[in-house]
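Troubleshooting: if your tokenizer reports a length mismatch, compare against these two reference records.
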Amino acid sequence: MALFGLKQKKATLVVAEKKQAVAKTDTSSSAPIFQDVFDVLKSPRITEKATDSIERNIYVFMVKERATKNQIKEAVRKLYSVDPVKVHTATVQPKARTIKGITGHSASGKKAYIYLKKGQTIEII
């Protein structure tokens, strides 16, 4: 019986070593790594609500769906040379549309509300 117990201990040691090796090599995180700041921000979102919020130093941008708040904040900091105070994100759900009898849907995505310090502005052309 001692012989079988010894094999089992060796097997558990081998499994533990494999788990440690995988843990060391697996450094991927859930957040994607974008090549450039232009990959994070798609475009400014120009709507009636978004233009009204500019008076309160809140700017709205369409962003990549997998972009995190920290990545968005860093992209705005590099592109526009401003200091975002905070970033809120929201997903845009697709809406059903019917045009000339053809049913489709509008685009979905993710938008980011970027709050700036007083006195700072972003020129959106």
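Reference record two:
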Amino acid sequence: MRKQLGLILSSALLLAACNQNKVEVIDGVKVQIHSHDDKAKKLKDGDIITFNLVIKNGADSVLQDTRKDGKPGKGMIQAPAGAPGAFKGTFENGLRLLSLGDSATILVPIDSLIKSVQAPLPPFLKPGTDLKYTVKITKVQSRAEFEKEMAKEAEVSKAEASKRLVGEPATIDAFTAKSGKAFQKTASGLRYSIEKPGAGASPKLGETWSVNYKGTFMTGKVFDEGKAAEMPVGQMIPGFNEALTLLKVGGKGTFVIPSSIAYGDQARGPIEANSVLVFEIELISKK
């Protein structure tokens, strides 16, 4: 009897696992439900959702992972657009089928993407395969709730930014003092240390110069670097433009750029708003 009961339970668990991995077509969307609660809050048009997302191609190569990026996805649930009979198997359409806490993989045929975007797709997206969006819904808000939350976060960010800006000059002074290099300061607040003077002319506004550079935060973490990169003077951040004019051909220097002459309160990729940037620059030649 116990053996039979064990077999029944094992079969039930296996059946549940198979159902979880089963791909179904619902409202034109290919979807594989991993977890679902019928009692959970349903999504409706106008809801703002927050979700974790992993995107893979047909070879299971990860194209995006919001957990690794440190920023969950956000979006609004909207009614399907387009004429009757139009392709509906999109990621956005698939989200409409889910509820708060649900986890699922939404499969979007590459062939359908080719027809809808009407442009060449990158080589890692192969015809005849699916683009796989594995998503978990972590939060559902009304538009009013979302806007209230965003306003509160903006106030907190503004207050934190103000604190950082007040203490920024002292932080930079401490950094340069510990560097072991002799830094000078320009009227803009740029700190510079010329390790190799170089010779000849210095870059001027409107010229393009080839440079080797490495950009880091004051923590030492690298956010960008390049070899023989072409830099049009006047088209980079103000602090970088000014740094180039302090070098001559063959010259090398380290430059600490305050946030006010970097990206200010705007974030750029890995660079957060109000970040102080440190650049090691070698001036190679005029282009």
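Descriptive notes for reference record two:
- The helical segments are 2-21, 66-69, 91-95, 110-117, 143-179, 238-245.
- The first strand starts at residue 23 and ends at 26.
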